[in-house]
């Protein structure tokens, strides 16, 4: 029952341009502030909150939604660990280091008595950014594999040779057509390799950015007010990183996990 009560208390709604807001928790905060002006608001707020929690937390549909959400997250966490295990050893070490820093920042925040909402927001921000970091590592694995399958100098050499051969006046029409087709394929491979190298630079830049964001969050965790600012920064980074990446053979698994993490933590109760 405690899990249902917590879920009902922190129930959120999506607001365009703002994001998800815990409307019930904000309402409780509003009544608490109004109570300093007139104590009657405390009594009114307590009554409304008790009624809200008793209705929502005991509603069968709400409980089923919370149970289903928890099962989905448990399965997603298992899939996430499996995905991480398929990364190269160095990538696994980078991920483990980032996760350790996130745990350290949360521990420091708890020591300075961060409120429940701030801690929950920070944990959610860390989780989303760590997930993007894992996807970037998976994309980097795919890009490294693509780059390893082709050598720029060798491709350029073959293109140069074929260009000279196809321009030879002694080449037959059929040979020239075959060489031209091969040249088109080699040039496409060269363009793909150039795109791969550029994508690698972008992925490495995003990875370094996330690491810097987490380092800032660790340093800010024990500073009054700094933790909230760092959490907002983490939220912003998680909105703009990790889009349009190619994950190769890990793509299907990542898409399934993305779907699990994208669903809201609670569902609206109707009826």
> What is the number of beta strands?
2
Question: Could you give the distance between the termini?
Answer: 21 Å
User: How would a textbook summarize the main sheet?
Assistant: 2 strands, antiparallel
Listing every helix as H and every strand as E from the N terminus to the C terminus, the arrangement reads HEEHHHHHHHHH
Spatially, the strands of the biggest sheet line up as 1-2
Strand content: under 5%
Share in helix: over 70%
User: How large is the radius of gyration?
Assistant: 27 Å
Shape: elongated
What is the SS-derived class? mainly alpha
Unreliable parts: 264-271
Mean residue pLDDT? 77
Number of helices: 10
Describe the 3D structure.
The structure is a single chain. The two termini are 21 Å apart. Helix 6 runs antiparallel to helix 8 and helix 6 packs parallel to helix 9. This protein has a domain of 174 residues. It has a two-stranded antiparallel sheet. The longest helix is centred in the C-terminal third of the chain and has 48 residues. It has 271 residues and is mainly alpha-helical. It contains ten helices and two strands, in the order αββααααααααα. The C terminus is likely disordered. It is elongated.
């Amino acid at each position: 029952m405690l899990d249902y009560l917590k879920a009902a208390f922190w129930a959120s709604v999506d607001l365009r341009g703002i994001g998800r807001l815990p409307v019930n928790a904000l309402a409780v905060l509003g009544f608490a502030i109004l109570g300093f002006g007139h104590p009657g608001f405390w009594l009114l707020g307590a009554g409304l909150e008790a009624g809200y929690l008793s209705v929502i937390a005991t509603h069968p549909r709400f409980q089923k939604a919370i149970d289903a959400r928890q099962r989905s997250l448990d399965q997603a966490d298992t899939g996430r660990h499996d995905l991480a295990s398929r990364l190269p050893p160095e990538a696994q070490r980078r991920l483990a280091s980032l996760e350790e820093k996130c745990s350290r920042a949360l521990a420091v925040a708890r020591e300075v008595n961060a409120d429940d909402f701030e801690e929950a927001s920070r944990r959610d921000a860390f989780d989303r950014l760590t997930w993007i970091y894992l996807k970037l590592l998976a994309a980097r694995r795919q890009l490294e594999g693509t780059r390893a399958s082709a050598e720029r100098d060798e491709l350029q050499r073959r293109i140069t040779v074929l260009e000279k051969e196809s321009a030879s006046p002694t080449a037959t029409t059929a040979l020239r057509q075959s060489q031209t087709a091969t040249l088109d394929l080699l040039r496409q491979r060269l363009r793909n390799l150039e795109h791969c190298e550029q994508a690698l630079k972008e992925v490495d830049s995003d990875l370094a950015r996330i690491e810097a964001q987490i380092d800032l969050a660790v340093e800010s965790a024990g500073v009054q007010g700094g933790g909230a600012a760092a959490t907002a920064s983490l939220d912003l980074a998680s909105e703009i990183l990790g889009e349009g990446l190619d994950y190769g053979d890990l793509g299907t698994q990542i898409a399934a996990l993305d779907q699990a993490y994208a669903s809201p933590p609670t569902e609206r109760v109707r009826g």
